[in-house]
Request: fold
Amino acid sequence: MEANVKSVSMAEAKASLSELAARTRGGERFRLLRRGKPAAALVAVEDLGRLDRAEAVAGFVAAARKFAASLPPVEELPDLADLLPERRTRPRQARRR
Reply:
């Protein structure tokens, strides 16, 4: 978490949850401590949405990298022209006028 995050004990957070929640709407963030160790965070809904989107993007990028890693090297890919059936052309018919 960033430096502008304020640490608050769970007991303090429990006693002033409404106030802390209101302050998150103003952009403040809180690290909730249990026995002096970080246990949770209190952030604005907008921040949570940004975190969710960032996680989704990271998941998508990881999946794309995994897929790309599973592909054979370009040198081993067959030439598309070798995979397509030979094209047979039909004689053109005369147009009617």
Q: What stands out?
A: The longest helix spans residues 45-70. Residues 5-70 form a domain with the YefM-like fold fold (CATH 3.40.1620.10). The chain has four helices and three strands.
